[in-house]
């Protein structure tokens, strides 16, 4: 028998609340199946199982908060005999209940579970919306999930961030304070000419539908993963006093959440993706994260982070490393700036790329080479 435990979903996580079981005792499960939803300061996270077998029994009920590492369920391996059922002790006869009026029975729920994000569920409770009324709402989230936007009336101001947003901010502060306290950061910056990248995107997107177009953010992520293959000391985890490079590149994207807060889910094995598949996976991840649903591995297995403030007009940003990672790459807002070409000044689309890295693992010389590799990759965006 194997134990399915509350996973650690980041260096700042100490406990989680079991929100929902997606598998029931007696169901067969396979490695990678999502079996439960856990809520942390970062939102609702879908938890995968890492072994094949049969869900023998659950050990924790919904709504229960337990520390990281607590057994949540027992999984029986294929071919393993069922565990003996303990014989219950005889119970003393219960006292006769005092008759009292029964409340009206709630309307029966349909067989399909209600899909609703945690923030939307809190707003529904605040508005007094029962399950029957919620089922009448057409959700716009993944797989028809009801989102915060679906519950806000036209013209209504967005709901105030709930208490868990304060908890998220506290969790972010704790993780970043730990990072600055324990990790000796060093910082580098380089301006990169985006003329070849912009021309490549214009040609690549000419015949694509809007929903299939490749965005500059995908080129940034692709350039970083290619550079990380060349300079592996920036891709991995520093744990137990030593650096452990990762064979796979799980590139995290810093994402600002609607209503406040920040998470950095990873595109798993991003280093093996071509540009089109990387863009598709970025869209899928962003869509799920912004409706409050993402997966455990996307938080726990990131090996390097990429951050950008998009079109917010920030020329340069310096990130703080997310432990146990050892590097974070930042991209400033692309804009036309003066550059010198062949002795003359010209206008060109550029961005400032920054690196914050762990001095226990690398130094400024290697960091400069890593930034130059990112620059070179953006000059040759069509390369695999």
TrEMBL record:
The protein's Enzyme Commission number: 2.3.1.-
Sequence ranges assigned to domain Lipoyl-binding in this UniProt record: 1-76
Ranges of biased composition (kind: Pro residues): 85-109
SUPFAM superfamilies, alphabetized: CoA-dependent acyltransferases, Peripheral subunit-binding domain of 2-oxo acid dehydrogenase complex, Single hybrid motif
First-tier enzyme category under EC: transferase
UniProt xrefs under PROSITE patterns: BIOTINYL_LIPOYL, LIPOYL, PSBD
Top-level taxon: Bacteria
UniProt KW Transferase keyword: yes
Domain called Peripheral subunit-binding (PSBD): residue spans: 115-155
UniProt key word Thylakoid: no
UniProt cross-references to InterPro entries, sorted A to Z: 2-oxoA_DH_lipoyl-BS (IPR003016), 2-oxoacid_DH_actylTfrase (IPR001078), Biotin_lipoyl (IPR000089), CAT-like_dom_sf (IPR023213), E2/Pdx1 (IPR045257), E3-bd_dom_sf (IPR036625), PSBD (IPR004167), Single_hybrid_motif (IPR011053)
Pfam family, one: Biotin_lipoyl
Positions of the UniProt region annotated as Disordered: 80-116
Annotated Gene3D superfamilies: 2.40.50.100, Chloramphenicol acetyltransferase-like domain (3.30.559.10), E3-binding domain (4.10.320.10)
Keywords attached to this entry: Acyltransferase, Lipoyl, Transferase
Cofactor(s) demanded: (R)-lipoate
Alphabetical list of PANTHER family matching this protein: DIHYDROLIPOAMIDE ACETYL/SUCCINYL-TRANSFERASE-RELATED, DIHYDROLIPOYLLYSINE-RESIDUE ACETYLTRANSFERASE COMPONENT OF PYRUVATE DEHYDROGENASE COMPLEX, MITOCHONDRIAL-RELATED
Family, as annotated: Belongs to the 2-oxoacid dehydrogenase family.
Name of this protein: Dihydrolipoamide acetyltransferase component of pyruvate dehydrogenase complex
């Amino acid at each position: 028998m194997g134990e399915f435990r509350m996973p650690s979903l980041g260096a700042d996580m100490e406990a989680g609340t079991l929100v929902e079981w997606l598998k029931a005792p007696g169901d067969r499960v396979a490695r990678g199946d999502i079996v439960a939803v856990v809520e942390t300061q970062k939102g609702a996270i879908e938890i995968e199982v890492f072994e094949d077998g049969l869900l023998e029994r659950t050990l924790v009920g919904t709504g229960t908060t337990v520390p990281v590492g607590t057994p949540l369920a027992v999984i029986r391996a294929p071919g393993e005999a069922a565990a003996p059922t303990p014989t219950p002790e005889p119970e003393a006869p219960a006292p006769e209940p005092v008759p009292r009026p029964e409340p009206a029975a709630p309307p029966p729920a349909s067989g399909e579970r209600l899909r609703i994000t945690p923030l939307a569920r809190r707003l529904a409770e605040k508005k007094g919306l029962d399950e029957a009324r919620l089922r009448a709402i057409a959700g716009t989230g993944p797989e028809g999930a009801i989102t915060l936007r679906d519950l806000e009336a036209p013209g209504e101001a967005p709901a105030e961030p709930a208490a868990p947003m304060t908890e998220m901010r506290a969790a972010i502060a704790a993780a970043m304070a730990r990072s600055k306290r324990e990790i000796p950061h060093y910082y580098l910056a380089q301006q990169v000419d985006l003329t070849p990248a912009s021309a490549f995107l214009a040609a690549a997107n000419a015949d694509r539908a809007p929903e299939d177009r490749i965005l500059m953010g995908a080129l940034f992520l692709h350039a970083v993963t290619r550079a990380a293959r060349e300079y592996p000391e920036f891709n991995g985890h520093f744990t137990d006093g030593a650096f452990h490079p990762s064979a796979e590149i799980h590139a995290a994207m810093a994402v600002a959440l609607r209503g406040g807060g920040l998470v950095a889910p990873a595109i798993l094995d991003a280093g093996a993706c071509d540009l089109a598949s990387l863009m598709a996976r970025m869209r899928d991840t962003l869509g799920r994260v912004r409706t409050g649903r993402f997966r455990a591995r996307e938080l726990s297995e990131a090996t390097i982070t990429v951050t950008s403030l998009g079109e917010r007009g920030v020329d340069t940003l310096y990130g703080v490393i997310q432990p146990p990672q050892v590097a974070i790459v930042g991209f400033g807002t692309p804009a036309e700036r003066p550059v010198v070409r062949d002795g003359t000044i010209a206008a060109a689309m550029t961005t400032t790329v920054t690196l914050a890295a762990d001095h226990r693992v690398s130094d400024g010389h290697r960091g400069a080479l890593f930034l130059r590799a990112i620059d070179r990759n953006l000059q040759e965006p069509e390369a695999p």
